Amino acid sequence: MAQFNVEFDATGFTRNATVSAGQLSDAFIQAFNARHAKARTFPKGVATLVRGQVCPERSGNRAGTRCFVTIVLAVEAPNEEAAENFYPPSAFLKPLFDVLGENQGNEASLSLERGWEVTAIESLETELA
Hints:
Layout: E1 2-14, E2 22-23, H1 26-39, E3 46-56, E4 65-77, H2 80-84, H3 90-103, E5 111-112, E6 117-127
Antiparallel strand pairs: 1-4, 1-5, 1-6, 2-3, 3-4
């Protein structure tokens, strides 16, 4: 199997009009990966969490802020097409989505406006035994 970094994007909304851009810390990612590896709770095909970030849209809307959330996972797949068609369970991505919102000082988690979609794939050119 080959390994690919697969980027998943979603759009969220928060009533916090002052939300700022941010990302998951390296320490959070390392702890997250260690916890899931030890408990063997990564969804089938997911090797690791690579990164996560949130970027608010600056529209001047005082009622709240639309945010673009990106989560990148290292995925094991036989080829690029299979990686492109891979979707981890929403229950796996949702807590990461929530953490990204909370890290930005939101009073509540971001509300997911639409589902996750694959927006980029990068081959890591590493064959796994």
